[in-house]
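note to self — DONT lose this again. spent like an hour looking for the file last time. sequence + predicted structure for the chain T wanted, 366 res
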Amino acid sequence: MAAERVAQTVAPGESSTPTRARRPLLSHSPFHLGFFGALGALAALFLTEQLLSISSILILLVLAMFLAIGLNPIVEWFMRRGLGRGWSVGVVLLGVLSALTVFVLTIAPVISEQVAQITANAPGWLDDIQTNNRVQSLDDQYDIISRIRDYIENGNYGQQVFGGVLGVGMAVLSALTNTIIVLVLMIYFLASLPTIKRAAYRLAPGSRRPRVTELGDRIIVATGSYVAGAFVVAVFAGVNTLIFTLVIGLGDYAFALAFVVGLLSLIPVVGAVVSAVIITALGLTISPTVALICLVYYLAYQQLEAYVIYPRIMTRSVDVPGSVTVVSALAGGALLGIIGALLAVPTAAAILLLTREVWVRRQDAR
């Protein structure tokens, strides 16, 4: 019987030896692997170059989404009072546009004028500092003053110093086109945030969607609370600097310094140190006593902000260790300036939340 079945399956003139499935020619040859590997690398390089070419637009996109998430708690507050989401978004946007208009028309020109004044007076300050015997000996040894003078007089000092401090945030504020793009995107994201969340959550498997929704909502709420808290900290630091500089004798640069210190306060711990250095250096142009007062005052304020103001405002929004906060803020600031520092802490908080709730729980269950 078995011989008959074999005979039926083998056609006349064909070999009865079983044939193996033939593999594609050279499917595992070095040429095959090298060709398609190189093709994949070229495709990855091309896509990377395209992403880098639109990096500025991607930064504006992320900034708009971040601002929308930050304003969403205010929208939901109005919604709990009976307003629809459309009306709530309209009220919040009216307040934002009003504040931005007041800033551009009243405060921005003063800041620009004071920055120009600092740039114009800097060479004279160097001459005054050079009269100090200790500074003169250091300058004779390391040629510090002449290098700083060349940097100020020959380079674009105002743009480099203040542009470097403010980073992408200053570019967004100073460029009208970018501001309009951010506002339009922010309005769209703010109005359609529930729809965007639902669409994103549907990408998760149905069995895990409730858990993904819970974690996603927690991250969004924490991010919104952090943005609101960071704004409060920045306003507090800016107003405090404005009052202090007016009292100490730096009133000619009070608004510019308040603006810079307010933005730097978005970088936890490090921002306060940089602010102290800037204010102390300008205080030295008046007298060593004023510089010492500035240094002591900002060291005390740094302790107050680090251990009292910042923890009380941020504890309810993000749960991030201090070391992680500093490292993430430095990394974000190095990549994207003030915007990167602002995004770094909630991003680190989201990563830590996912690590604790997903990876650590999975490890504990094994």
